[in-house]
Predict the 3D structure of the following.
Amino acid sequence: MASWRRAAVFGLALTAACAQSPLPEGPVTTFGVTVVDGFGLRGDIYLLQPGTEMLPNFKKMEPVGSIYTRELNIRPREFQSGFPGVTDRFEWFAIDYNGYFYISNPGKYRFIVASDDGSKLYIDDKRVIDNDGVHPLKAEECAVRLKGGIHTLRLSYFQGPRTHLALMLGVARQGEEWKIFSTNDFQPPRDPADWKYGEPNKLPPLSVPPRKQ
């Protein structure tokens, strides 16, 4: 295990399995807002039982509400505010983010997730990062070859005991510097006729658990 120093973003040393990979500075974000955003990630919020040590099976649960965001750069911090308009819970909760992103330049992309506590990243329903469990800030990364067109992204996260947490999602093309992933950077052409890859009316399904009736 090599020691990574991501001081540019995290302000502390992380331990991980690869070489040094500093993420850039970026605007600090929240988990999201309750205003619906069709170009962002939708995060469904779930309440967990105290003592939960791993991400739950969301298919067996009902969300208490949803939030929306275009990027996740939640640096290590104390969190006691809860989710205004949804719940005041600030520990023992999970958020399951789902959304689309468009690749106009096919090739190999790197993704990195840093979280406190557990997280998992899925691209096109395939788990590419497993950073699960109750732990202090820890980062994992992967490399994925992506074809042009629409892809699905799912980032599942949970916070265990109070009150420190973090959640950051970064991306980089092969050979380029890390940046915070934002759906603003991966939107398809506004005119469907300009789509070089894929078809607007054939979007892949999102990995959102069915709602209880």
